[in-house]
What does this fold into?
Amino acid sequence: MKPGATVIDVGMNQVTTRAEFDRLFAGNKKREETFLAKGSTLVGDVHPEVAAVAGAITPVPGGVGPLTIAMLMANTVKAAKMRGKAEVRSQIAEVKTS
It folds into this structure.
């Protein structure tokens, strides 16, 4: 990951074992209070240590909602299609110059 990047964590997972909690959040008292009270805690797909390198990271839970996820996916598909068209144009230009 590029230092300073913005990380949008759209994953939603549940940590239910103490061993997994300790692996991810050892020393995080606020998370531990939630874990002990509920018997679990919600986490994203991004490892917590990424926050030390990222410029910004969305929290889980509470960072993004269903509409944000839908728009992110729509934009990802759009970007992939645009990139594909650019690669095709590049290949056509190479053929013409050969």
